[in-house]
Amino acid sequence: MSVAFRRESDEEHLEPRPDLPIPPGPNLVTARGLALIAGHATLWEDRLETALATKADEAAVKEVRRNLRYWHARRATAQVAPIPDGAVVAFGTRVTHARDGSPDQTIDLVGEDEADPTEGRIAFTSPLARALMGLSVDDVAPFKAGGKTVDIEIVAIEAIPD
Q: Which segments show compositional bias classed as Basic and acidic residues (predicted)?
């Protein structure tokens, strides 16, 4: 039979999924963040062992390897930042701030992989973190949020406790 009449499988035309995107810039982490990254890497290593032992389908193994590459890259490039002194807002600080009369809010400035806004941890690369960096207690800075500019006052700064 001619190759022209042969039905090729749909999988032959699938593009491979690209690796998970690595955030640009330095991979600054806190000690907690480094432990989280190591935990994720171990988790995906275990999942790969399980997938290979159970002879999981090729797509599942590829997905596990994709995630594992991401966490290995993050662990390899992690730079534990020195503990800040708390005099100014910096990576690794816990910052309490007020916005235009709203109740005070406390956030921790952490690395990309440790960030969890619902837990009050934001990435040091976020717009809010960048607006606060370098400020001291009682400093007020404008910040554009939701299409309007609000004033943010720094109420307290401390190093994130272990």
A: 1-18
Query: Residue 114's closest CA among 134, 135, 92, 133?
Result: 92
pLDDT in tens, the chain (162 residues): 555 555 555 555 567 778 888 888 899 999 999 999 999 999 999 999 998 888 888 888 999 999 999 999 999 999 999 999 999 999 999 999 998 778 899 999 999 999 999 999 999 999 999 999 999 999 999 999 888 999 999 999 999 987
Residues 75 and 100 placed together within one structural domain of the fold? no
Give the count of domains, the chain: 2
119 belongs to a structural domain: yes
What is the rounded distance in angstroms from the CA atom of residue 78 to the CA atom of residue 116? 18
Q: Which residues does residue 33 pair with via DSSP β-bridges, in sequence order? A: none
Same domain, 98 and 121: yes
